[in-house]
Please model this.
Amino acid sequence: MDNIVEIKNVYKSYSKKEVISNMNLNIPKGKIVGLLGPNGSGKSTLIKLINGLLQPNSGDVLIDGIKPSIETKRIVSYLPERTYLNDWMKVSDILNFFNDFYDDFNMDKAMDMVKSLNININEKLKTMSKGTKEKVQLILVMSRHAKLYILDEPIGGVDPAARTYILKTIITNYCEDSTLLIATHLISEIENICDDVIFISNGNIILQGNVDEIREEKGKSIDALFREEFKC
Ligand SMILES: Nc1ncnc2c1ncn2[C@@H]1O[C@H](COP(=O)(O)OP(=O)(O)OP(=O)(O)O)[C@@H](O)[C@H]1O
Model:
């Protein structure tokens, strides 16, 4: 099986509003993939379908050949667009919680990142700035040894200096045979770490391919291409 994600003819609507239109998409193993699209194009919906948080009206979603389930949750490390962690918990509590809950959680790796990003493990999430909370969540997600990492808008609130560190951390910490799917609007920041990109518009995949090949073929950066494609 060469694909970690297979989307087969998936249709999803909210009430009568079509959000994902009979989509077919394969995401190969061992790649860093940017999922890019304007506001409301369906990125988070697609990610929730992959995670089994939403069910398609029709079609199939397969993760490593199986439908989203408890089994797939073991191999998927997911950073949602909104936090699900309890505010009253200290960073140390959350790290211990993840360590107990996930067999593939690497506490040493997490502590290295905590130190490098100057996070106080005795601080409660409640008193942290938005960017620091994002850093904590990213540390949790990237400290697992998963087959598929899905990051929904991971670094929007993080300052530019820390972003560089985080992107470096993402590349160094993820294992070569894993796949990383990142939905973001910070295209210029991530295009150099991505192998492939996917452009989504109104629930349709309008472009998918290798970053270097697209840049060469179009003679422009992915960021410039996106701005041109989705000009308001
Ligand atoms: N729970 C919901 N009920 C009804 N409509 C929804 C719901 N969630 C999302 N939508 C609609 O589905 C469409 C796709 O939303 P989605 O959040 O997937 O887009 P997105 O590409 O992630 O956007 P953004 O870049 O702004 O985060 C939007 O038109 C949105 O209004």
Remarks:
- Residues 141 and 230 are 31 Å apart (CA to CA).
